[in-house]
Amino acid sequence: MPRPAASAAATDLRCPSPVLPSPDGPTIAGLLSPAPAPAPSGATRLWPGEPLLWSWGPWHPGEVRTVQCARVRLAAVGQCLADEVTMRHDLRRAAQDGRWERLTRWPGAYLLLVLQDDGALTAYADPAGQFPLYYGRHGQNTVLSTRARTAAALSGAVGRPDTAALAAHIFCPAVPELTEGRTGYDGIRRLGGGQALKVAPSGRCTHWAYEDLAPDPGTRFEDSAAQLRSALTRAVTLRTDSAPRVTSDFSGGLDSTSLAFLAARTTGRPPLDAFVYHHPDAPAGDLAHALAHAEQAPSIRLAVTRGSEDSLPYSGLPGYGSADQPDPAAVIGARQRLRLDHIARGGPGIHLTGEGGDALLAAPPSYLGDIAATAGLRRLLSDGRALARIRQLSPADVILRARRLARTPLHQAMGELASRLDEPLDHPPQWADAVAWWPAPGPETAWLTTRARGHLAELAELAEARARSAGPASPSAPATPGTRAVLCELRISAAVQAQFTSTARAFGIWPHAPFLDSEVVRACTRLPLPHRIDPFTAKPLLAAALTGLVPDPVLRRRTKGDYAAENYRGVRRSAAQIRARLLRSPLAELGIIEPSRVIASVERAVAGLPAPFPALNRLLGSDLWLTAGNSGQEWP
């Protein structure tokens, strides 16, 4: 491949080429420089004969797929389900007309890497953001990796946490605009859902959104239901056709249970092994539904994974640190490993989860603002009263919140966030508090140091300025509060699935979330949110799409498993270990939290009082990430 001459930056002794580390897990990484770095130990070239990007294994079979033609090389990393003939044909067409985004339309979900013969590399993250790319700078050169930790090692950012980004992750997770793609590593950015990055041979980076998942006002409910039925059925069928073993979650709820029924219809190796988790001393309410639904399908063999005291949340925290990104699910690591061990007893294979279904198909409270702005007063009164009655709230209060939200532009909400950090809610955010662009900060804000609170306020002020300058007509601006909330929840679901996939790798299990497939995501988000939601029906679009394929009792369930009892039981059992961890937390050393204030909230939880468990889980996940980095655990 022709290359330009080495630049001064490539040979400058003040910017030496870093030694590429050998990651613990499967990774693709590279230093994009006119003078490519030497082959790292233990790595293979991503593309034969091309030294730009390197790969470490072991990957699952088919997790990294490469094709090439005369002028371009391509890699799809993740779950690309297209056949090779289609991939080669579409690549040749794209090489001729330059329409690379066409290659993001294949079934599945994947990170796309396209290397042209002039040395330009373009990356496309999947629309949901399950397969991101991390990038940064090393001198004048660009570093890339599928792991944040490896990108940080290449750029020299290891040991330099981004304290503002960590604080935003813990205390304002529903406001990603504060950090705009920053990660826990200083200087390392994340190419997230629907985003693209082009790195020129000179090292210059261009970043844009190629897929905004904006609703199409002309889309009809019936058409979206048909598209979702086709996309979801195809997503499951392609997996059951190709994998030697497929298993599924089976909670008894709409999402995972529906996928299990679809898989049972298409697998050529019945029965399908399906799994439901149940803690006898802290039941979540799923088991009875799962048992009842499984009785209707002889092609499904249901197994119950029974929890114990050792699988409660917060059990064995020191052993579950994540080395790549802070993981709120680290606190339930014992439960995850119990489930994965049970699944793995039957051998390695693909495991279906329902992750993403709630984000795409359930109603965020902020959708009432969309109703107030676009659907008229009659619809607002109907939906507002119905939802208020279900939750035993004041209909007038709910409707007033929705009307206020419809009149509040995004930049104004950003400005209010900065002031609310000093006047947070005195209770964990409730459903009605989320009839807003995002829930207001809760009592966990008291954990912040004065300096950290100031950093967050500065981020909010910067985000306000960006939102004000972008304006409502900007392509990057979410059209409505509800649309924005769906996309935020979708990104969170994608991150949760990515972390679970990483955890499952040691068990030989490859989790797949068909609801996060690109075709499924597009089918759902194309329909405007007010047409997608009905307060009297749980996930009406999914019910319409799967009628006749999934039993009606499954599609009619309105409840979800509630793990609050496990949270309280777990925090009581592990309170001493949590206190000890907080007293020596790196988050305190970085000036983000006051440990005594967090411990006070833990004591409230131990006493059975309301406590901000989600914030506590994010905090402990960040603490575990920092601690693992300091100790070298799981770090390359």
TrEMBL record:
Pathway given in the UniProt record: Amino-acid biosynthesis; L-asparagine biosynthesis; L-asparagine from L-aspartate (L-Gln route): step 1/1
Amino-acid biosynthesis keyword on record: yes
Catalytic activity reported: L-aspartate + L-glutamine + ATP + H2O = L-asparagine + L-glutamate + AMP + diphosphate + H(+)
InterPro entries, per the entry: Asn_synthase (IPR001962), ASN_synthetase/amidase (IPR051786), Ntn_hydrolases_N (IPR029055), Rossmann-like_a/b/a_fold (IPR014729)
EC number in record: 6.3.5.4
Pfam families tied to this protein: Asn_synthase (PF00733)
Domain of life the protein comes from: Bacteria
Keyword field: Amino-acid biosynthesis, Asparagine biosynthesis
Disordered: region residues: 1-28
Keyword Amino-acid biosynthesis: yes
Domain Asparagine synthetase residues, every copy: 227-610
Family annotation (NCBIfam families): macrolact_Ik_Al (NF033561)
PANTHER family membership: ASPARAGINE SYNTHETASE, ASPARAGINE SYNTHETASE (GLUTAMINE-HYDROLYZING)
Identification of the protein by name: asparagine synthase (glutamine-hydrolyzing)
UniProt organism field: Streptomyces kunmingensis
